């Protein structure tokens, strides 16, 4: 089963140094339309990824075709925000849990913990997942305890 993470930053040090080893991922899949269209960002991000880890960048609408053509057993899937996660779910890609790793603060957002700020829309999306019995895992790094102020 693939591990799914929401992180505004997509690929960065915490993903490479903590989440890839924690999940034993051999593949990194970034599912985000903006990133899939940006070859320069992909090249820059790829520089930080160890050679032993394969990486792909796809559009959200490509998730089901990608899943049918690839074994996602050892894959860490990263999306940028709650909308991306909801859209891959709406495409028919099912998952039992989702790690909410980082959502930046912006005016109008509610700060749930140091690394997660949510808009009303984000809260609705997370409640949708909870109502569909998808486990919400609010951790920035694997060894971090869960400390949420409430949804």
From TrEMBL:
Signal peptide: none
Record keyword Protein transport present: no
Entry EC number(s): 2.7.1.-
Membrane-spanning ranges: none
Protein name: PTS sugar transporter subunit IIB
A Pfam family that the UniProt record links to this protein: PTSIIB_sorb
Domain of life assignment: Bacteria
One GO CC term, this protein: cytoplasm
Enzyme category, top tier: transferase
GO molecular function, one term: kinase activity
Subcellular location: Cytoplasm
Single GO biological process annotation from the record: phosphoenolpyruvate-dependent sugar phosphotransferase system
Keywords: Cytoplasm, Kinase, Phosphotransferase system, Sugar transport, Transferase, Transport
Main localisation: cytoplasm
All residue ranges annotated as the PTS EIIB type-4 domain in the record: 1-151
Keyword Repeat: no
């Amino acid at each position: 089963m693939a591990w799914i993470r929401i992180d505004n930053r997509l690929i960065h040090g915490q993903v490479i140094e903590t989440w890839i080893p924690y999940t034993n991922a051999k593949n990194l899949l970034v599912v985000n339309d903006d990133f899939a269209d940006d070859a320069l960002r992909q090249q820059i991000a790829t520089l930080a990824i160890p050679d032993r880890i394969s990486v792909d960048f796809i559009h959200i609408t490509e998730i089901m075709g990608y899943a049918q053509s690839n074994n996602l057993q050892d894959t860490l899937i990263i999306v940028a925000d709650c909308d991306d996660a909801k859209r891959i779910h709406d495409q028919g890609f099912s998952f039992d849990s989702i790690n909410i790793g980082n959502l930046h603060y912006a005016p109008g957002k509610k700060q749930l913990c140091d690394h997660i700020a949510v808009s009303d829309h984000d809260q609705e999306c997370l409640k949708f997942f909870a109502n569909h019995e998808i486990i919400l895992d609010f951790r920035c790094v694997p060894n971090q305890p869960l400390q949420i102020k409430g949804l």
